């Protein structure tokens, strides 16, 4: 049971870190008026989530 909880905690921490990086990047793009790149960042984040869920199963 220890290995599962350690892995779950590590996965949660890494996911939170990735989420924060994407949010910071999106806010930077909005502030610097590079809104045309926001769609690309969102598509990349969505693709990453789909790939993680696919590989985990």
Please tell me what the overall shape is: elongated
Q: Main β-sheet: number of strands, strand sense, barrel status?
A: none
How much is the radius of gyration in Å?
15 Å
SSE pattern, N- to C-terminal: HH
Query: How many distinct domains?
Result: 1
Mean pLDDT reading: 90
How far the N terminus sits from the C terminus, by CA atoms, comes to 19 Å
Tally of DSSP β-strands: 0
Index terms:
elongated; 57 residues
SSE topology:
Blueprint: H1 2-31, H2 38-56
Helix pairs in contact: 1-2
Explain briefly what this protein structure is.
With 57 residues, this protein is an all-alpha fold. It has one domain (2-56).
What does this structure look like?
This protein has helices spanning 2-31, 38-56. 86% of the residues lie in helices and 0% in strands. It has one domain (2-56). The chain is mainly α and 57 residues long. The chain is elongated and about 45 Å long.
